Amino acid sequence: MRNVVLARVDDRLIHGEVVTAWTPNSRANKIMIIDDEVAKDTFNVRVVKALAPAGTKVIVYDVDKAAEKLMVKGVEGERIMLLAKTPTTFYRLIQAGVPIKEVNLGGAGIRGERQPFINNVALNPEEVLACESMQKSGCRVYYQLVPEQSVIEIDDAVQKAKANFGL
Amino acid sequence: MDNQKYRVVLVSHGEQSKGMLNTVQMLLGPQENVAAYSLYPQQTVNDLSAMLEKEIAEYGAENIIFMTELMHGSPFNVVVSLTKEHDIYHVTGTNLAMLMSALLERDDETATAESICEAAIEAAPESFADVRKLLAASDAEEEEDV
């Protein structure tokens, strides 16, 4: 598997916090956006590649392609940040056999069925269950907005959200 | 200076755009055909996008210079997303020196949207410095003169 230094859920994808805080902190030199919709949007793909943060290369894949691309042998010195809009994406990668060890919940806005989960992260029932399943499979899922902030473990929030959604 | 053809639209997180517009008019005098938009925490990027679409509908993308304050910030991303449907002039990293240069260039009769953007960017490199280091370097040079 290639060298993943951070796997982050952030539905704003590449934006201020990721560029000014997480990229230098993780010393990532490649940012892989994993999203089935974004990968299909040629305008969006062109824009995120053209506006790659200094010192990084941006690539955009759908989940299937990402699972395939992550399992090859990496290039020496490569440090990849994975960015997805939803935890479900990372659960799908794990199910596809990509051994992701940690998932950082960073930002997910309220829309559709989503309800507040932790701070600025809101999740829908499917996403809550995806987080729980990832935890059970041995992948640590935690909340942290920026590296300077302390980590919040999600166990309590998962139980509350499950009760709230009647799961 | 009247009837400015090009419209300068500042877009920022919170009040910065409005404050900057206020400050620059303190330095350059009242400015016509300018606007400031803010993204507030309680707003979504779609709210901001809708307001900027209105600007474009009213004034035409070819007549507007968008100036955002932070590359990859949400206001920046909103303006970038407008380029999907429109041909957008957009300068980011805007500080007061850059804004002043853009507005001064705009007063020139031969100014174009491109030349206004260029004026802003040309002002950028000389607009910031660690003054302590600058002074120390100058002191060292003077010693060499002796």
Going across the biggest sheet of chain B, name each strand in turn. Answer: 2-1-3-4
CATH class category label of chain B: Alpha Beta
Helical segment tally of chain A? 7
**Any guess at the CATH architecture of chain B?**
3-Layer(aba) Sandwich
CATH architecture call of chain A: 3-Layer(aba) Sandwich
Structural class based on helices, strands and sheet pairing of chain A: alpha/beta
* Series of H and E elements of chain B: EHEHEHEHHH
User: Helicity range of the residues of chain B?
Assistant: 40-55%
The rounded distance between the terminal residues' Cα atoms of chain B is 50 Å
Number of discrete domains of chain B: 1
In short:
Chain A is an alpha/beta fold and 167 residues long.
Description:
The complex is a heterodimer of chains A (167) and B (146). With 167 residues, chain A is of the alpha/beta class. Chain A is 39% helix and 25% strand. Chain A has one domain (4-165): 3-Layer(aba) Sandwich (Fructose Permease), CATH 3.40.35.10. In chain A, the strands form two sheets. In chain A, strands 3-2-4-1-5-8-9 form a seven-stranded mixed β-sheet, sandwiched between helices. Chain A has a two-stranded antiparallel sheet with strand order 6-7. The N and C termini of chain A lie far apart (34 Å). The model of chain A has no long low-confidence stretch (mean pLDDT 96). Chain B is built from six helices and four strands; from the N terminus they run βαβαβαβααα. Helix content of chain B is 51%, strand content 14%. The mean pLDDT of chain B is 94. In chain B, helix 1 (16-28) packs across helix 4 (96-107), helix 2 crosses helix 3 (74-82) and helix 4 (96-107) packs antiparallel against helix 5 (113-123). Chain B has one domain (7-145): Rossmann fold. Chain B has helices at 16-28, 45-59, 74-82, 96-107, 113-123, 131-145, and strands spanning 7-13, 34-39, 64-68, 89-91. The A-B interface holds A 12, 14-16, 18-20, 43, 47, 51, 53, 109 and B 44, 70-74, 77, 80-81, 83-84.
